[in-house]
Amino acid sequence: MNEVNAVSAQPLVTVIIASYNHGPYIEESILSVINQSYRNIELLVIDDGSKDDSVERISALQAQYGFDFRAQQNQGLTNTLNGAIARANGSLIVPFGSDDVMYPDRIAIQVAHMDGKPEVGICAGNIELMDANGNLYPEKRQRRDVPFRRLDFDDMFLERKPYPPAPTLMIRREALDKVGGFDPTIRLEDLYIELKVTHAGYFIDGLSVVMARYRKHATNSYKNNRFMTESILQIYALFSDHPLYDFVRYRFLSSMFLKVSNRDRPFARELLAQIPFKAWNKKTWRGLARMFFSPLEKS
Prior knowledge:
Layout: H1 3-8, E1 13-19, H2 23-34, E2 41-48, H3 54-65, E3 68-72, H4 77-87, E4 92-97, E5 101-102, H5 106-114, E6 120-130, E7 149-151, H6 153-157, E8 170-172, H7 173-178, H8 189-199, E9 203-215, H9 225-237, H10 245-260, H11 265-273, H12 282-293
Parallel strand pairs: 1-2, 1-4, 2-3, 6-9
Antiparallel strand pairs: 4-8, 5-9, 6-8, 7-9
Helix pairs in contact: 2-3, 9-10, 10-11, 10-12
């Protein structure tokens, strides 16, 4: 079998990069896909109404490498992902952050793992953390050593095992179609799709391999505590018939309360008001101590 036939015999992987105002990072993200050792990749890049020089940067790369690039007025990430999935040809879908970087063998490793495992709806791996300039964080702050785990819905919903990192998700197209893709009203797309896919009966396999670098910078969504709280509660509410829904909800509220207790005290008081006294746990009490006895920190 010649090289062309060998590549075409492999599963087609569609990588979707939706970009918004990530001009300083977008080229490195795209090149990390182009330089994958796995060759049967369809790359779809969408600029979602950027106000910076992203379109110019992407267009220059598109002229050189010939991937599919479309620029559109801002529609939001989940709408953009759904639109790209609708025209994707791959049986495996990889949504990838326009500010992150994947390692060269990432796609090859995941395709090999998912082969012959139809029960696995999502394959993930480990990540390394880097700053806005691409410098790796100190060893003690890394997440590269999380061991292999297979997660079902309760593992995810109850947080019984470490979550699969968003920059490493490879999703089986069949599973995406079964759950109806992403919900445009929910902006925290990774947790939503992980819970929906496992709720549909698939597993998530988290491999022990470092697959990507996650870039931490000023505009990361996770730094917006109110957005994260509202989004996660919105997702959890989809599964309110679960017998431990209240436990999961109040445990999360206590965790967020602790996080913001000496950073954003007005928001902390809002969160505390949503936790009935009978649901208080160690984090709630620690948050109270921080709120009243620790100096206010910058978020």
